[in-house]
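User: structure tokens for this one?
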Amino acid sequence: MRIKAAPESYAPLITAQPRVIDSLDLWDYWPVQHADGHPAQIAGGTLFISLSAPILPDPDARHAMARMRLLHNVGANWHDLGPVLPDGLSPGSREWSGSAMLSPDGVTITLYYTVAGIRDEAEISFVQRLFQTSARLSVEKDSVILSPWATPKECVTPDDVHYSSDMTGGGAIGSIKAFRDPAFFRDPADGAEYLLFAGSLARSTSAWNGAVGIARRIAENGWQILPPLVDADGLNNELERPHVIVRNGLYYLFWSTQTKVFAPSGPAGPTGLYGMVAERLSGPWRPLNGSGLVFGNPPAAPYQAYSWLVLPDLRVQSFVDLVGLTEPPRDVAQARAHFGGTPAPELQIMLDGERAWLA
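Assistant:
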């Protein structure tokens, strides 16, 4: 309710952007990172993983067939390296967002990602599970190879105490439940390792029960689930792709959300990047700018971008969603005509204590 309709709260307008891959829609991308969060420099550039799908008549249909795609970004050029995982390796019907970390010796990449659905399911489901796997990284001349991949293992499971395992909310707007988007974080205070994720509160009385979940590594391949860092019970259903950076001794937690997943009975913010700040990972967390909003899509293009990722140097990456629309698309054809399906221009934010703004 404290969100102000101030110009500095809005991202600049995005114009049409060139596609990275002509035959595919791309969204929700993330770089391979070092444990401190900085993108790793590999073969003269940065490896990115993006969700991908063939260009379908309805761009929303991409979620039902998403697969991770490996990209190598060198300067202004993007190189398509094909699917991240071999066919048949992942135990779901599709692959959703996560994070990827390079080992200190530079030879292994560990991938944390969301397995959506069940392999060979007759009807698309919204079951979501968190898995991890790893592969050897090799660079031969200009070729980057990740192989072989280990058999993916489920790493964190909902406990039905803090996080619900019930995914029967379905896929209608504002109703899909969450146990997805694992993001690795190593706490510089003590070296402990965590996975943040988008979750849904267990035992909630509201259909809008989104939360930022967290689990702590307690063994080489073991994770202990912990209470949520932040919840939006009664307010918002999806706090997506949460992640933490540390800046000037403070912890900054960020997530993305959309206007359409706020509870209709309460206040709603713009589709945008939201965040909180604390002195330690365990909190207490305070909303940035008094409201939690860092910036939103502009009123002239409220659907233009989504899925923001803040890097330690305060660059912000996202993908081009629906460009040039002021209202929801009236039909599938209009949605396809305006869907970007490619990386958006990077933004830069500034942080000063409990204040955050676009540079």
